[in-house]
Amino acid sequence: MVRKIILGLTGASGACYAKRLVEVLSPQVDLHLVHSRTAPLVFHEELGLNLSGWLKEQKVTVHGISDFLSPLASGSNRFDGYVVIPCSMKTLSQIAHGVGETLLTRVGDIALKERRKMILVAREAPYSTVHLENMLRISQMGGIIFPASPGFYHDPQTIEDLVDFVVSRVIQLLDLPQELVKPWKS
C-alpha cells in the first residue's frame, strides 16, 4: 500500500530541505503539498527557483493555502504523516494553539486531533521562551519537533550532505526507507 504524506512549506529559511525531501519522497509515496504565501519568495531567494514551476515538474499534488474544500481539510481524509519543512515559528505557534486559519495549519490541527504523525522541522535560532513553550506544547500533544540541525558523524563534505542528513532523519521518522545517510556506526 502506498503511503500518503503531506508536506507543508513555510516562508522560513531552509527551502533546500523542502526541495530535497520532495525529490526523495515523490517517487515512493503519494505526496501532497501545501505552502504558505511567502514560501515561493524564499524558494526563489534561496534556490533561484520558481516554486510553482518547479512543483509542476515533480510528482506531487499541490493544494492551495486557502482551499478548505481540499480533501486535506478533513480529518476523515487519511494520511500517514505530515511534515512542515521548513517550519516557521508563526506556523508552529498556530498549530500549537489550534489556529487552523490556513490549510497549512488546519492539516496540523488534524494531525494532532487524529493522532497522526506530525514532524515540524523548526528553522529558527536562537529560540525564545515563547518558541520553546510552543514546541513543548506540540511535543506534549504527540507532534515531533525536529530542529534543522545536521549531525557531522557522516563526514559531510558539502552543504548538500548536511541537507541530506536532516532529510534522511525526517524520512526515518516517517518510517520510510532512505539511503541518503547511513545510520550511526552501520
Parts with pLDDT < 50 across at least 5 consecutive residues:
none
Q: Any idea what the shape is?
A: globular
CATH class, named Alpha Beta
User: Which structural class do the helices and strands define?
Assistant: alpha/beta
The total domain count is 1
From the N-terminal CA to the C-terminal CA, the straight-line distance is: 28 Å
Strand order in the largest sheet? 3-2-1-4-5-6
**Helix content class:** 25-40%
In CATH terms, what is the architecture? 3-Layer(aba) Sandwich
How many strands, which pairing sense, and closed or not: the largest β-sheet? Answer: 6 strands, parallel
Number of helices: 7
User: What fraction of the residues are assigned to beta strands by DSSP?
Assistant: 15-25%
Mean residue pLDDT: 93
Sum up the structure in keywords.
alpha/beta; six-stranded parallel sheet; Rossmann fold; globular; single chain; 186 residues
Q: Could you characterize the architecture of this molecule?
A:
With 186 residues, this protein is α/β, with parallel strands linked by helices. It has one domain: Rossmann fold. 39% of the residues lie in helices and 16% in strands. The chain contains seven helices and six strands. It has helices spanning 15-25, 39-47, 51-56, 89-96, 103-113, 129-140, 159-173; strands at residues 4-9, 30-35, 61-63, 81-87, 118-122, 144-145. Helix 6 (129-140) links the parallel strand 5 (118-122) and strand 6 (144-145). Helix 1 crosses helix 7, helix 4 (89-96) crosses helix 5 and helix 4 (89-96) packs across helix 6. The longest helix has 15 residues, at 159-173. The model has no long low-confidence stretch (mean pLDDT 93).
